[in-house]
Amino acid sequence: MRINCMYPEGRLSEDDRRLFQRALKETLEIFNSGRSPLVLWCRLEADHLFRAREQSGLVSVSVILPDGTDARTRTAVLQSVNNQWLALGHDDRDLMVAALNQSMFATVQRQMLARLSTCARIGFVLRTLVNLIRSRLSTGLAEYTLN
To answer: Which domains does the chain have, with CATH numbers?
Structure first.
């Protein structure tokens, strides 16, 4: 299981991200055969997210589940993420949660990368890996940016 969290810069402090990540891992490992899920953080520039024609502080959490996960489990996962967000004192109107099939997510990822030239694709993948490693070493959080 993998969890992708996207947030606008300035919306969540490092402590907020740490607390939310810990809560997500502890809560969702029961849906992942007792293994701690991988959490990736994507920080977007604050002016890159809009809702209702205004800048948005919306945080998006995508939980990538194995294909064939039943509806009851999906619902429980979605509710667990929402409950952890609320437990940390956040408003659920500032959260979007999705439970995605692993194969569909992989297809979309491949299609997005395929739109880039070979050089741009290699550059993007290497830059993302360097960001993830650097962030993990300095903060303990696996974080990258799209820019």
So the answer is: 2-145 (3.30.429.10)
